[in-house]
Write a structure and sequence with these properties.
With about 270 residues, the protein is mostly helical. The chain has 13 helices and no strands. Helix 9 runs parallel beside helix 12 and helix 11 packs antiparallel against helix 12. It is globular.
Length: about 270
């Protein structure tokens, strides 16, 4: 490894460590803010009824002292953050406050737990988490299993990962893990590193699976897996047709850094 690579990697690691440390501090501060509001202002009574003036006045005072970030809405979600995770050690530092802000909008704790585990396991960014929540992924999977089954999925994330693999393998010919290896990805999110064509095919596969699922209303994992394959096959057919027209593979080994950041050259006189 060259001197340049050593130094570049050193600073990249330092940057990542700094981001992680800042994120942990912000999550802890948000959690403790919620704790103060619940336990001190409300004397620990999570169900206490109080006027909105408390958070309004608190928002004004904190904004005056510390600037932005203390809107009534933010303080409300910090309070919900503490109530949802009364033990600070149960918070995952793999997610940011923006992730938790979206998770806390879920209707119940089971749904929130499901999306939280999936976001961690799949490496979802905030935009992807919002997309999955808006697509009612939890509700759609809940139709094909019982509450205990969904709870198991929320804790392990296994069935959803398997269904995702089935969809991906059907249209691309590779599992999610194989696809990432093909692109030379490690911790990066696969979707974030797809070309426009790959992303379109992947979205077609997911959308097709959703529409078929609505029509057939699968019961249990076996039926869901069959529908996942059917949805993936729609995108597979589209892929083959495209490849026959263009004469090249729709699957690319390129990742985001290859086509979003053009290489630079050092010009020497």
């Amino acid at each position: 490894m060259s001197l340049v690579s050593h130094i570049a990697n050193l600073w990249e690691d330092a940057r990542n460590n700094a981001i992680t440390a800042v994120n942990e501090s912000l999550l802890k501060a948000s959690w403790e803010t919620g704790q103060y509001i619940v336990e001190f202002e409300q004397e620990g009574n999570a169900k206490a009824r109080y006027g909105e003036r408390l958070l309004v006045n608190l928002s004004k005072d904190l904004t005056r002292l510390r600037g932005r970030g203390f809107s009534r809405s933010n303080l409300t979600y910090m309070r919900k953050f503490y109530l949802a995770f009364p033990k600070c050690e149960t918070i995952s530092h793999k997610l940011t406050w923006s992730h938790y802000f979206e998770l806390l909008k879920c209707d119940d704790s089971l749904e929130m737990q499901f999306y939280m585990v999936q976001a961690i396991n799949e490496g979802w960014k905030v935009k992807e988490l919002k997309r999955q929540i808006n697509s009612s992924l939890f509700q759609r999977l809940a139709l094909s299993t019982d509450k205990e089954g969904v709870l198991a999925m929320s804790k392990q994330g296994q069935q959803y990962a398997l269904l995702t693999d089935i969809i991906t393998r059907e249209w691309s010919g590779m599992t999610t893990r194989q696809y990432k290896q093909y692109k030379g990805l490690k911790k990066e999110n696969l979707r974030d590193n797809m070309t426009n064509v790959e992303l379109a095919l992947n979205m077609l596969a997911e959308a097709s699976t959703t529409e078929i699922s609505k029509q057939k209303n699968p019961k249990g994992y076996t039926q869901s897996a069959k529908i996942a394959k059917e949805g993936g096959s729609v995108a597979k057919a589209a892929r083959k047709q495209l490849e026959s027209k263009t004469g090249k593979s729709a699957i690319s080994s390129a990742k985001a850094s290859d086509y979003l950041l053009p290489p630079t050259e050092d010009n020497e006189d």
